[in-house]
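Ops channel
N.P.: pipeline sanity check, posting one input/output pair.
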């Protein structure tokens, strides 16, 4: 594919990496970066992720053929309300938010049909953030969840699908509510757990650092992520996260009870069930 102009709103790790990927593969004529902080836009220009920088949202997107909203999840709905009128009538719009149900429901209720906004969620990123950490291969081999809903503009859906495929991603179509239920358990609750594990370990004092091994670092790596991002995810996917936390707490209560009663069979069964479940979900 080749697009004359792409506007990326939010030029952090995800937005910056998308700009670099599009430019490195010759998929776009011009990448326009839109943001609220001049410093981030300047850094994105410096690393080559964007070709022009814009502090004004409406002005930054007015001529764009494709618009990608790469802001935190809590800001996407407000962005869509502006883009509905500011973008070209022919423009295709997507986002990268980790939650989809509330965003897609709002777009369904407020955008005319067939809808030219198609929700996306690239399962890519790291605990690092900012355009200085962006790189062109971030999406290579990543899965992108693509909104599966009625009323979408078919050309928009295929264009957004092709956009992600052309930067190396693999597409999984999923309904927004199902998406949020799944990622609550595969991403959001694990982030909560990682933060909690880090906190209880830190309470052990100075010797916690030399006695923390690879297992601790692997289990808590994602606790280094930006707190405001995960605040927004918990609030925009509140019900699914609460349900996932309830299920997680039930599992913890069961293993705690087995350990308390010194039930070796139940303890071994718990870890064996976890080993099998991980293989089923993670494929390893």
């Amino acid at each position: 594919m080749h697009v004359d102009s792409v506007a990326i709103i939010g030029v952090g790790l995800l937005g910056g990496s998308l700009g670099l990927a599009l430019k490195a593969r010759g998929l776009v004529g011009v990448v326009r970066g839109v943001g609220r902080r001049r410093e981030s836009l300047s850094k994105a220009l410096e690393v080559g992720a964007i070709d022009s920088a814009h502090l004004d949202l409406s002005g930054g997107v007015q001529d764009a053929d494709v618009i990608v909203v790469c802001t935190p999840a809590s800001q996407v709905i407000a962005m869509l309300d502006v883009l509905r009128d500011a973008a070209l009538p022919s423009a295709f719009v997507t986002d990268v938010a980790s939650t989809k149900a509330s965003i897609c429901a709002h777009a369904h209720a407020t955008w005319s049909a067939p809808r030219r906004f198609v929700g996306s969620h690239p399962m890519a990123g790291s605990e690092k953030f900012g355009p200085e950490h962006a790189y062109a291969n971030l999406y290579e081999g990543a899965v992108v969840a693509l909104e599966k809903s009625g009323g979408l503009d078919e050309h928009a859906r295929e264009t957004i699908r092709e956009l992600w495929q052309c930067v190396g991603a693999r597409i999984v179509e999923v309904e927004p509510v199902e998406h949020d239920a799944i990622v609550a358990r595969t991403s959001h609750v694990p982030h909560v757990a990682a933060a909690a594990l880090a906190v209880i370990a830190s309470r052990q004092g100075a010797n916690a650092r030399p006695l923390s091994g690879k297992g601790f670092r692997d289990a808590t790596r994602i606790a280094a992520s930006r707190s405001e991002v995960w605040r927004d995810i918990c609030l925009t996917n509140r019900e699914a996260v609460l349900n996932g936390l309830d299920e997680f707490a039930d599992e913890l209560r069961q293993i705690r009870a087995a350990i308390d009663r010194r039930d070796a069979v139940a303890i071994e069964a718990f870890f064996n069930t976890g080993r099998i479940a991980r293989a089923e979900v993670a494929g390893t």
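N.P.: looks fine end to end. Residues 12 and 182 are 25 Å apart (CA to CA).
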